[in-house]
């Protein structure tokens, strides 16, 4: 019986070859578009996470004291707590981490020694940089270049210049490529640095780097000593400390431990990029909704060909029922046809999507994809996305085939055969 149902299903589909081919093509194109869209969005997210984990600190200790828990003075009656309001207008203190060398020593001990793999104190300051008739406000980040290299891999990100020249040149700058393009800077160029307070200084560009993270590429690295001079910080203070940990996906526990130990706010890379990560999540929901809607449209196309088949094959269906084909057998027949059309289109779409993903990924075009700058599109080759769309499309086509199948099963052979128009 199964072989007979299979042969009849193939005969029905091949009998209307042009319409079947058109429906399969529509399903294939829809599947290709869906898989390519998912590959693009997920590829961008994976590329962003990989780049951030590779370039940016996994955790950052900021010069922001941990805020104590708020006290409820309204409902906590009799708690012995009092609140006072004073006239106290004072200059806002800048964020700074004090006695940072002591913190570095403690981080080398357990339990931090086994989790923290690299540490880099830094001083961050806002300055104005002037090159000829061009000027731009920039963020300078004073670092120990050897420590910073272990976190961000600066040596491998240089496109011009060298770290050796940076170490030997007083007041040297490592300039992000975006800054270099905006100010038309090249290696050995001299610029004027104007800090928020204090005299202006002459600095030399010792290197240009490119990480692909736009926020980093808009930064200028200087030595830790030069950063302190510009920010007017004493030798025992820094703006913050950057960390790299063994497991970038498990940063909550070490960050909380460091906060308790130091009393300063320790922010993870997930918290720093929460807005971007939530945006990717929303985009993912939109893409999945698109998958559902396009799958439903493909299902309508499959249902259309089967409804036409039921109408044109009414006499054949009546004869089959008169020969003893039961209603469940007829339902199975048309469901099988819907499944075959959907599966054929989904598989063809999967093959087409391999070509479209490879094509987009190989385009030698530098694109600014949100927070990243990449050459070509970041595409994901995760086979799970292929399987998910192919299975979903096949299931929707199979479900869509149930409606014409039930119509065929309800036909009365006598009334159909009596119809003279058949």
Radius of gyration (Å):
33 Å
Strand proportion: 15-25%
User: Can you tell me the overall shape?
Assistant: elongated
> How many structurally independent domains?
2
Helix content: 40-55%
Gap between N and C termini? 27 Å
Structural topology:
Blueprint (H helix, E strand, L loop, with lengths): L1 H14 L1 H39 L3 E7 L31 E2 L1 H8 L8 E16 L2 E10 L1 H8 L1 H4 E4 L1 H6 L3 E5 H7 L6 E6 L5 E9 L4 H4 L1 E5 H8 L5 E2 L1 E6 L6 H11 L1 E5 H4 L1 H39 L1 H9 L4 H36 L3 E4 L2 E4 L7 H18 L1 H8 L3 H6 L4
Parallel strand pairs: 4-9, 6-8
Antiparallel strand pairs: 1-11, 1-12, 2-10, 3-4, 3-7, 3-11, 5-8, 6-9, 7-8, 13-14
Helix pairs in contact: 1-14, 2-12, 2-14, 2-15, 12-14, 12-15, 12-16, 14-15, 14-16
Pfam families: FtsX, MacB_PCD
Membrane topology: Multi-pass membrane protein
InterPro entries: ABC3_permease_C, Lipoprotein-release_system, MacB_PCD
Summarize the structure in words.
The chain crosses the membrane at residues 21-40, 283-306, 384-406. Belongs to the ABC-4 integral membrane protein family. LolC/E subfamily. Residues 289-413 form the ABC3 transporter permease C-terminal domain. Keywords: Cell membrane, Membrane, Transmembrane, Transmembrane helix. This protein has two domains: 2-53 and 276-417, no CATH class; 59-63 and 95-247, no CATH class. 54% of the residues lie in helices and 20% in strands. It has helices spanning 2-15, 17-55, 100-107, 145-152, 154-157, 163-168, 177-183, 214-217, 224-231, 252-262, 269-272, 274-312, 314-322, 327-362, 383-400, 402-409, 413-418, and strands spanning 59-65, 97-98, 116-131, 134-143, 158-161, 172-176, 190-195, 201-209, 219-223, 237-238, 240-245, 264-268, 366-369, 372-375. Helix 1 (2-15) crosses helix 14 (327-362).
């Amino acid at each position: 019986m199964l072989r007979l149902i299979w042969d009849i299903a193939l005969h029905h589909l091949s009998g209307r070859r042009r319409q079947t081919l058109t429906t399969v093509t529509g399903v294939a194109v829809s599947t290709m578009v869906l898989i390519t869209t998912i590959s693009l969005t997920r590829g961008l997210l994976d590329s962003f996470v990989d780049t951030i984990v590779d370039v940016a600190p996994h955790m950052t200790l900021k010069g922001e004291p941990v805020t104590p828990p708020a006290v409820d003075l309204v409902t906590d009656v009799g708690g012995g707590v009092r609140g006072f309001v004073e006239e106290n207008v004072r200059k806002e203190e800048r964020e700074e981490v004090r006695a940072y060398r002591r913190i570095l020593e403690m981080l080398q001990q357990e339990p931090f020694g086994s989790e923290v793999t690299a540490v880099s104190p830094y001083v961050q300051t806002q300055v104005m940089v002037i090159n000829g008739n061009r000027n731009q406000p920039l963020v300078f980040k004073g670092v120990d270049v050897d420590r910073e290299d272990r976190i961000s891999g600066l040596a491998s990100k240089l496109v011009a210049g060298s770290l050796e020249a940076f170490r030997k040149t007083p007041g040297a700058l490592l300039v992000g490529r975006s800054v270099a393009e905006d100010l038309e800077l090249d290696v050995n160029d001299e610029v004027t640095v104007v800090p928020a307070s204090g005299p202006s200084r002459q600095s030399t560009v010792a290197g240009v780097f490119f990480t692909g993270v736009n926020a980093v590429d808009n930064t200028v690295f200087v030595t830790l000593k030069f950063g302190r001079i510009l920010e007017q910080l004493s030798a025992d203070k820094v703006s913050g400390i950057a960390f790299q940990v063994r497991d970038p996906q498990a940063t909550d526990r070490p960050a909380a431990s460091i906060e308790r130990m130091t009393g300063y706010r320790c922010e993870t890379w997930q918290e720093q990029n929460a807005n971007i990560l939530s945006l990717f999540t929303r985009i993912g929901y939109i893409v999945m909704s698109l998958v559902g809607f396009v799958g439903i449209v493909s299902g309508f196309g499959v249902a259309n060909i089967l409804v036409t088949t039921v109408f044109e094959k009414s006499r054949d269906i009546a004869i089959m029922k008169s020969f003893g084909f039961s209603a469940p057998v007829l339902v199975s027949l048309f469901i099988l046809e819907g499944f075959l059309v959907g599966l054929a289109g989904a598989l063809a779409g999967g093959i087409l999507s391999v070509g479209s993903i490879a094509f987009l990924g190989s385009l030698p075009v530098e694109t600014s994809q949100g927070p990243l700058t990449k050459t070509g599109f970041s595409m994901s080759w995760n086979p799970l996305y292929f399987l998910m769309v192919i299975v979903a499309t096949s299931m929707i086509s199979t479900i869509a085939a149930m409606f014409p199948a039930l119509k065929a099963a309800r036909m009365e052979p006598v009334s159909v055969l009596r119809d003279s128009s058949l």
